[in-house]
Amino acid sequence: MNDMTVNLKAAEPQRVRGLPGHSTVGTNNLEAAAEFYDRLMAVFGIGRFLVQPGRAVYYGERTLEFGVIKPFDGRPANVGNGGMVAFEARSRAQVREAHATALSAGGSDEGAPGPRGENGEGPYCAYFRDPEGNKFLVYRAGPDET
Prior knowledge:
Elements: E1 5-6, E2 23-26, H1 30-43, E3 47-52, E4 56-60, E5 66-69, E6 85-88, H2 92-104, E7 108-115, E8 124-129, E9 135-140
Parallel strand pairs: 2-5, 6-9
Antiparallel strand pairs: 1-3, 3-4, 4-5, 7-8, 8-9
Helix pairs in contact: 1-2
């Protein structure tokens, strides 16, 4: 398999609900970024799916869902203005846990966990940035899963 490592799980016929399909953010320090995302993705029960040494680390359940990569063009990674990746949580507690994990792993707060919208009746959300400045939203819309 050349320089790639793949983690394949037995596919089930049902659709896996999880992170958005194959979103990526850039990094200038792949090793440090992978440590940050290993901790964050563990909150969602998701681990490394595909590793391309020195190039990228992808996370997912049964397919690539999220990745941290060094830019293909060799230029430095930078944060996109207005860009944000959103992760859907299974519960409000998972929103709080993901936010706390991101901060304890070196991320920065962009909005504490809590309800959003008029009268606090919108989704329960938390915002943070990874150590390189990429912005994330973790949210739970509707009741917690059981």
